[in-house]
Design the sequence.
């Protein structure tokens, strides 16, 4: 099952964020994630907006799903726009 997070920015744009390769089967996704992980431990995350904004690609800590606050995630999205 693909894990995702939804956050809402101050302008009411709802963002759905998923880790790149999350839609693959577990073993393949794990391999792809390991290969794409940066030396700093970052992983690629794609955030798609509910409205007219463009999709944003981020590099976040591997534990972003559980340990990044909604505010920090929104700030990362806005910084990447």
Sequence:
């Amino acid at each position: 099952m693909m894990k995702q997070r939804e956050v809402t920015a101050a302008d009411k744009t709802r963002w759905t964020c998923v880790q790149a390769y999350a839609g693959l089967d577990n073993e393949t996704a794990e391999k792809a994630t390991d290969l794409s992980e940066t030396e700093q431990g970052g992983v690629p995350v794609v955030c798609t907006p509910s409205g007219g904004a463009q999709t944003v690609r981020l590099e976040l800590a591997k534990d972003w799903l559980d340990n990044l606050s909604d505010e920090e995630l929104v700030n990362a999205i806005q910084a990447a726009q």
